[in-house]
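[Automated response] Your request has been received and processed.

Submitted sequence:
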Amino acid sequence: MTARADGAVSIAALLLMLAALPPAATAASAAAVEGTVALPEAAAAPAAAARYPFATSYEVGEPDPPAAVVYLEGDLPAPAPEHAEMKQERYQFAPGLLAVPRGSTVAFPNRDDEYHSVFSYSKPKRFDLGRYRRDEEPPALVFDEPGVVRLYCEIHDHMRGTILVLDTPHATRTDAGGRYRLDGLPAGTWTLVAWLDEDTVRRRSLTLRAGDTVRVDFPEE
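Generated structure:
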């Protein structure tokens, strides 16, 4: 009984000591990378027409501006799965480019007053959700194979979306100006990748030390 009490006291004291450590102690051991990626100019949106018009108004929004996904590549721990959404909104996929860790679940809610029918023939994830309305929720899907998944709508030919499934815990999407920042990176030698599309993938080798903030730009090549 005494031994158990002593043990409890020791554990409690240890927890108090850990809680007293400054938060910066962990942050100081991590590195960061920031910079810009040269993005292509936005292409003119194709003329949009519904194959099976249903809504009384049909106002098509602008597609997402070009963006890149920047991620760290190397011998890294398996990423933790996430829950994400790829909406259909104003007759576009939103976001148009989504990066998720391998094993993540993605939902496809319809926010328009018309049917959508989302499908993909891409090798990492082939699926067809069929037609569904705003008040219907198609099943969320698990993306457990890394790679590029191209999305389409069977009803609206102009709609295009991309899900990039990554086998890394360190990834981010640039803003519209091409700016990015990755925090909490481990020390070591890695490959930094800027993914714009399947034909435009830029790589840089870099070495990170604890506490470093390194700038890496990806100019147009």
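Summary generated for your ticket: The chain has one domain: 24-215. The helical segments are 2-20, 24-27.
If you did not submit this request, please reply to this message.
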